[in-house]
Amino acid sequence: MKQGQQITAQFQHYMENPLLWPILDVLRKQPSGWKVHTLASHLGELGYIPVLDPSPEKDLFKRNFLIMNALYQLQETLYPDNWLQVEAMDIVLMSAHHASVHQVDLQDPLRDYYIQWQNYEANEGEVKRLLNEFWSKYREFVGSTNGKDMDRAKALSLFELPWDASPAEIRRTWRKLALRWHPDREAGNSERFRVLCEAWNVLR
User: How far apart are CA 143 and CA 46, in angstroms?
Assistant: First the structure.
């Protein structure tokens, strides 16, 4: 098996790209006018994306892959409350009105390509390390306390889940709560969102 294909089914299904939340921050502030390369550049300026490969061509490919992967995950997460148009040269966050005339196309070959982590051209260990680094940076950004007062029992309680909740249930609940309390939402709460980030960090 090629190195780039060494991605387990469980990792493939449950690993979340932490760039979802920085991208949502950016799109809430400026919903349109983005292309993949301008979004990648902006996230790099904010300190979210380091150099990913010594080869400039591979670095560009990996940046674009991570952005597209996050956009497709975010599209599914936001729907049907918002519609996220995912096109390389035209990324737009739209209202629920626009969402009513769209639906997530699970048969889209481009979406299928970017959702598959093995196409990132790295093994599972490298991808996990990278996503953990991204997640650590984002937790710092929202004011992480490094989980000093958080354990699995408290995290599950905050998520209102039983002790034997599956990874899929935990991930679905995290996304639902994160969207509800995200600071850029009208009824959002930055402190509540920070605490939920700590809980997700323990549960993930």
Answer: 15
Mean pLDDT by 10 residues, the chain (204 residues): 58 78 94 95 91 91 94 93 94 90 92 90 86 87 79 95 92 92 86 93 89
C-alpha distance from residue 22 to each of 12, 17, 70, 71, 93 (Å): 21, 10, 10, 11, 14
Radius of gyration of the chain (CA): 17
Residue 167, classed as helix, strand or coil, is helix
Between helices 36-45 and 20-29, what is the axis angle to 10°? 100
Q: By the 8 A CB rule, do 167 and 141 touch?
A: no
CA distances (Å), 26 to each of 84, 123, 151, in order?
13, 29, 30
Name the DSSP letter for residue 17: -
**What DSSP string describes 180-197?**
HH-TTSTT--HHHHHHHH
d(CA 185, CA 176): 13
Question: Which residues, 6+ apart, have CB-to-CB distance to 108 below 8 Å?
Answer: none
Closest CA to 72 of 35, 119, 114: 114
Instruction: With CA atoms as reference, report the closest residue to 177 among 162, 192, 163.
Output: 192
Backbone angles phi and psi of 104, in degrees to 5:
-70, 125
Cα–Cα distance for residue pair 170/162, rounded to 1 Å: 10
Rounded to two decimals, the pTM is: 0.85
